[in-house]
Design goal:
Layout: H1 2-20, H2 23-36, H3 44-54, E1 69-73, H4 79-88, H5 95-105, E2 114-118, H6 124-131, E3 140-143, H7 150-160, H8 166-172, E4 200-203, H9 209-235, H10 239-252, H11 259-271, H12 279-286, H13 321-328, E5 337-341, E6 346-350, H14 353-363
Antiparallel strand pairs: 1-2, 3-4, 5-6
Helix pairs in contact: 1-2, 2-3, 3-5, 4-5, 5-6, 7-8, 9-13, 10-11, 10-13, 11-13
Length: about 375
Amino acid sequence: MAGPLVFVLIVLTLVVVAVGQGQAIVGDAVVGMVRDRDTLLRQSPIRAIVSQRIGAATDLAADATGASRDFVVEDGETAGGIARRLEDEGLVRSALAFLVVVYDEGIESDLHSGEHRLSPAMTPREIAEALSQEVQERQTTLRLIEGWRLTEIAAEIEKQFPHITKDAFVQAAVVGTRTSPVLAGLDPATPLEGFLFPDTYFFLPEATVEQIVERLLITFEERAGEVLLAAADARKTTVYDLVKLASLVEREARARDESATIAGVYANRIAIEMKLDADPTIQYAIGEWRPLTLADLEIDSPYNTYKVGGLPPTPICNAGLAALEGAAEPEEHEFFFFVADESTGRHVFAKTLEEHEANRVKVGNR
């Protein structure tokens, strides 16, 4: 407790000094410290100095003609973090102006998580007021699980948004006229399977199907687009093939830290034109994530990677970040086989078929 107290006393001493001399220099120092530690604004003398420096910014809009848009406050996000994002996204001119209002009103701990409708035409004071209003009653939470296929997402959306049917969502979730770089080269009719990022989202109950599809795709671009585009260029492949690979990894890797290793196994097989023998592709073809029978392995489908070489025709699910990053940069090793150890939830890897069969016996997978 002594550290923060001493720090505050030093700052308050600077404030006193500022009254007599060097106000501009001390003011700069105080503002710099507040940028690093916004909780200093709990002290009224500190707020007074910062308020003097920012002038009327607390009541000035960033853009008087700006359109409203959604702004999501995450659970546990601090006032300082929210302020920086508001400034980065152009909703306020100054993060400090927003913070001065928040601490002046004593609502720094009362900024509610969830989706808010904000506009750069609002002043920092108005935005602070809006974020302090409870939004749970007027928002719908959409939780999408890593590894869900498009139809599973559609079913969850119909459940949470009764005015949107499963069929309507599936029909809307196609490339269409979208110009995103991660979709470059894909036919407009291509489903967005694999490009709908699994996460927790907050929407207004009246959200349209297009708004939901767009949000899921934009989140995919923001979280994984840069990594995938760079990897596709470096490895002389396409983003679409990387997303296909990631979807296989997602359905196989129970432990996230195995993602790159499993991706490496598939990459090794592809390099020597060895069939992938991936159970999840057949599960996708039959429409169920269930244990396979010997008869299932004989189905006539382009997704039967026991019979058809290479990656499946499309992604088979919507992968999370770990699987996407693993597919973007597969681990370099000499493994060609892996088997799940149900007792640990992890996999045992092998270089040869003989080693693989021994591993299967060891883990009780016969």
